[in-house]
Amino acid sequence: MSKENNPSVHIMRSPLGRARGLGAAKHGAAHWWAERATSVALLPLSLYFVVSVLLLKGADHAAMAAYMAEPWNAVLFLLLIATMFYHVSMGLQVVIEDYVRDDAKRLVTLLVVKGGIWVLALAAAVSVLKLAFS
Amino acid sequence: MKDVREALMVGRNSEGKLVRRPLSPHLQVYKPQVSSATSIFHRITGVALSAGTILLVLWLVCAASGDSAFSVIQAFLASGIGLLVLFGFTVALFYHFCNGIRHLAWDAGKGFELPDMHRSAKLVAAGTIILTVAFWVIAFVVG
Questions:
Q1: Structural domain for A43, as ranges
Q2: Is residue B126 within 8 Å of residue B108, measured between CB atoms?
Q3: A9 within a domain of the structure (yes/no)
């Protein structure tokens, strides 16, 4: 932003049009709720994950495969993956929207990050399923 | 002025002349406060944990792809660098966990008074330290 204190406005938009152009808050409440819901779900799931990591410390492949072959472990890991990446996606979205000012750059950054999160989440879920069914 | 958002920062003075409205001061002019520090650290640990998910995915993918790949990642995690990364991971996780509970309490409308907020910040710091120490004690002394 230039610092001259003699500004003039060239935008041919009414204040109402300008406000509408900024986007109506139609999705904000859902985003806020989903962030809280996933955070509450992640309290027990992350503790389960920490315990799993301790149990699998130094484990060989057979021990890891046996752990994921237990249905509850596979289910809890899949729940963790889904909830965690949903939470990550919403958290990073807020961070990107706060710091990436340029509209085009922000859109591209959001798409790249969200696409990457899908890749990571599916890779993790498929790996757990493969171990669970092998 | 072509940016729509900048147009919102323009007002008229008493003479009807267009003037740039004053902006609120930014982060660097404030003295660091408990409230701002815990908030910023919540965001930093959140982003760090997001990056850390890559390591978790790598661990699971290696486990799924077989014996040799899994022994490589397990050896890396047990190495000096691996343990350092995992230590950072646990600090970030336990801080985000504890401070997340603090945020949920605020969402429920509780703990907004300044003394309460300062006390809960101390609890978060203590909880982070206790959980991190407990994790590593269990990992190396008990387990």
A1: 29-133
A2: no
A3: no
B57 → closest Cβ in A65, A92, A120: A120
Both tokens assigned to A14: 């009414």
**Closest among A97, A122, A91 to A109, alpha carbons compared:** A97
**What pLDDT digit, counting tens, does each position of A11-64 carry?**
666 677 666 666 555 667 888 999 999 999 999 999 999 999 999 999 999 999
User: Which pTM was predicted?
Assistant: 0.83
For chain B, the domains span 34-142
CA-to-CA distance for B7 and A8, rounded, in angstroms? 9
Q: What is the distance between the alpha carbons of residues A83 and A121, in angstroms, rounded to a whole number?
A: 10
| Integer Cα distance of B136 and B143 in angstroms | 10
Domain tally, chain A: 1
3-state secondary structure of A73: helix
Encoded tokens for A125: 């879920």
Q: Which residue of A has its CA nearest to B20?
A: A5
> Would you say residue A49 lies in a domain?
yes
Q: Which fold has domain B34-142?
A: 3 helical TM bundles of succinate and fumarate reductases (1.20.1300)
Q: How open is the CA angle A121-A31-B25, to the nearest 5 degrees?
A: 110
> 3-state class of A12 per DSSP?
coil
> With an 8 Å Cβ cutoff, are B63 and A5 in contact?
no
ipTM: 0.83
Beta B10-12 vs B18-20: how paired, if at all?
Answer: antiparallel
